[in-house]
Design a protein that fits this description.
The complex is a heterodimer of chains A (217) and B (345). Chain A is of the alpha/beta class and 217 residues long. Chain A folds into two domains: 83 residues, Translation factors (Elongation Factor Tu (Ef-tu), domain 3, Beta Barrel), CATH 2.40.30.10; 114 residues, 3-Layer(aba) Sandwich (Rossmann fold). Helices cover 18% and strands 32% of the residues of chain A. Chain A has five helices and twelve strands. In chain A, strand 7, helix 2 and strand 8 form a beta-alpha-beta unit. In chain A, helix 4 runs parallel beside helix 5. The longest helix of chain A has 13 residues. Chain A is globular, with a radius of gyration of 17 Å. The two termini of chain A are 21 Å apart. The relative contact order of chain A is 0.16. With 345 residues, chain B is of the alpha/beta class. Chain B has two domains: 59 residues, DNA polymerase, domain 1; 269 residues, Alpha-Beta Barrel (TIM Barrel), CATH 3.20.20.70. In chain B, strands 3-4-5-6-9-10-11-12-13-14 form a ten-stranded mixed beta sheet, with helices on one face. A two-stranded parallel ribbon of chain B has the order 1-2. The longest helix of chain B is centred in the last third of the chain and has 13 residues. The two termini of chain B are 35 Å apart. The chains are: A alpha/beta (217), B alpha/beta (345). Chains A and B meet through helix 5 and strand 12 of A and helix 8 of B.
Chain lengths: 217, 345
């Protein structure tokens, strides 16, 4: 099978939270924030897609991923060391961020495209709502806390902590009375989160044409 | 114990060799599994007693009965099947004057999150095995009347490609059901890499869920557009030689004041130029919490005429089984799914 994948060397592969890694490679291509690359361990393997989690002007490309125990790729990818190689595609997809005001909603590693948008300079008039199970699920939180302040909402379903909403992000959304209708809502994460969140937004009279979703599958 | 039903001939050859049985036993087994009307290993009367005993120690025959059937006022029947991991799927049998179609599912639930589909609302629970896919045909009381099978039930078939391809092999091989591939249509929202593999490895018909020719509009209806665009899908289709017998069709749900305009007719004609295909218009069947409305009959008729006038063969799919929630976009076993409490949000 010709996947059009190119071999590239891993610079770092760091576990930032139990079972969650940032894989770093040199940036030798251009991309639009929000795009994905396909990754495989070998040239003819079936690749999997991952959102780029770094900025368009960064020298390095970051890939945020978590180990799926039943998966074929991530358990092996987690074992890779600097100097090992992987195979990647060109950037693809069109879940593009814009400079316009927007509300970003992510669950788990679905934060990745928003990290890319943020680090690419799409910072003005943004609100970020991030759902996770544990307090260590809020990847890149220091960066967002400092810059977004009260426009950065962390929703933790299993633990409680200072400054963190205790409950699912969908519960937080249901409690909001005045969601802005004329902004775009970008959703990224599991299909369950996207579908449930989209239903809540529609119920709250957000026009569905203002809801843009990317599903990880 | 594992099931024999759902294994291909090469897989069964490995199984019998592992058990120390002669290789030709596999062909005898496929005959019993896919051509005869039995339901237990014991009934495989031309296998030796020893062979049957060895098989029964590790395998079951593997057929699964439906647990419920609902019948529509229009004759459509919806069957509920349990799956191996205690979930449920639905299949719809649609009898008609000239053809009797079985609509099968390929997954429990679906990941793709299309705005207009009930299956998407229940999320994704699991893939079906090839055996569970084929079982929907094998268990059907009306199976001798089936003229066509469409993979348009629950799930995205190309998100479960390996098992779907295996099921197609069972349906179309001489050692299996022996059907012509032209009796089968597999529908996809357009998972491009898997679609390429399907086009390479199968001769069955392809149907693509389009629903809008415009990227931004399609993105709002179908998140997959952000990952695999319609443009990529069409480029892939153009690159394949479909021959004269194999068909590609595009499914198009008609939404009022959204995708039923002259502008859409013109864009469809433009992007499909050079692709020998047909368009299958579908009435929208409303689902809860969806801000979409179906086009009225007059608009659908006008749209269909306009496309046919532009040389694109366009038909309107009859809405069947609406009263039992068996029509397009309505299949769901959400009520039978226990919500995951350990989700990542």
């Amino acid at each position: 099978m010709n996947n059009n994948l190119k071999e590239i060397t891993i610079l770092r592969n760091e576990e930032i939270s139990p079972g969650v890694f940032v894989l770093t490679i040199k940036r030798n291509f251009s991309f639009v924030p929000g795009q994905v690359i396909s990754i495989a361990l070998h040239a003819h393997d079936q690749p999997r897609m991952y959102s780029i989690a770094s900025g368009t002007q960064d020298d390095e490309v970051w890939i945020l991923y978590n180990i799926k125990p039943e998966g074929e790729l991530t358990p092996e990818m987690a074992k890779l060391k600097p100097g090992n190689t992987i195979y990647i595609s060109k950037p693809e997809g069109n879940f593009y961020g814009t400079a316009r005001p927007a509300i970003w909603i992510a669950s788990g590693t679905g934060i990745a495209p928003f990290v890319s948008m943020w680090r690419s300079g799409l910072k003005k008039d943004k609100m970020l709502i991030h759902g996770g199970r544990f307090l260590n699920s809020f990847y890149f939180e220091d960066e967002f806390k400092e810059a977004l302040g009260k426009n950065y909402i962390r929703c933790c379903s299993q633990e409680s902590g200072a400054g963190v909403y205790q409950g699912r992000l969908t519960h937080w959304l249901k409690e909001q009375e005045n969601l802005v209708e004329d902004r775009k809502y970008y959703l990224c994460g599991s299909a369950e989160m996207v579908v449930e969140t989209r239903d809540i937004l529609i119920e709250k009279e957000i026009p569905y044409e203002n809801i843009v979703a990317e599903i990880y599958f | 114990m594992k099931s024999l039903f759902g294994n291909t001939l090469p897989e069964l050859q490995n199984i019998v060799l592992d058990l120390g049985l002669p290789k030709f036993t596999a062909a005898q087994i496929t005959d019993w599994l896919y051509k005869k009307d039995i339901s237990s290993i014991e009934e495989m009367s031309n296998l030796s007693k020893k062979a049957r005993t060895l098989l029964a120690e590790k395998y079951v025959f593997g057929l699964v009965d439906h647990t419920k059937v609902q019948e529509s006022s229009d004759g459509t029947k919806k069957y509920l099947f349990p799956t191996q991991n205690k979930k449920f799927i639905e299949a719809a049998y649609i009898p008609d004057e000239n053809r009797n179609t079985l609509c099968v599912s390929s997954q429990v639930g679906c990941k793709m999150g299309c705005l207009f589909c009930m299956t998407g609302k229940q999320g994704f629970q699991s893939n079906l095995t090839a055996g569970e896919i084929v079982n929907q045909v094998r268990n059907l009381p009306e199976r001798e009347q089936i003229s066509n099978v469409v993979f348009m039930g629950m799930g995205e078939p190309f998100d479960n490609l390996d098992e779907v391809l295996k099921s197609l092999e069972i349906f179309t091989s001489d050692w299996g059901f022996g059907w012509s591939p032209k009796r089968i249509t597999v529908s996809t929202i357009g998972i491009v890499p898997a679609m390429k593999t399907f086009l390479d490895q199968s001769q069955c018909h392809l149907a693509v869920s389009m629903h809008s020719p415009f990227e931004e509009e399609r993105k709002k209806l179908m998140p997959v557009e952000s990952v695999y665009s319609l443009e990529q899908v069409l480029d892939t289709i153009r690159s394949f030689d479909f021959g004269r017998q194999r068909r590609v069709s595009f499914e198009y749900i008609m939404f009022k004041d959204l995708n039923d305009t002259t502008r859409h007719v013109n864009e469809l004609a433009r992007i499909l130029n050079g692709i020998r295909c047909r368009i299958n218009l579908i009435r929208f069947h409303p689902i809860p919490n969806t801000p979409l409305e179906g086009s009225d009959d007059a608009s659908i008729e006008k749209f269909m005429t306009a496309l046919n006038d532009k040389g694109i063969r366009t038909t309107l799919r009859a809405s069947r089984g609406q009263d039992i929630f068996a029509a397009c976009g309505l299949l769901s076993t959400k009520e039978l799914v226990k919500k995951k409490e350990d989700g990542d949000y």
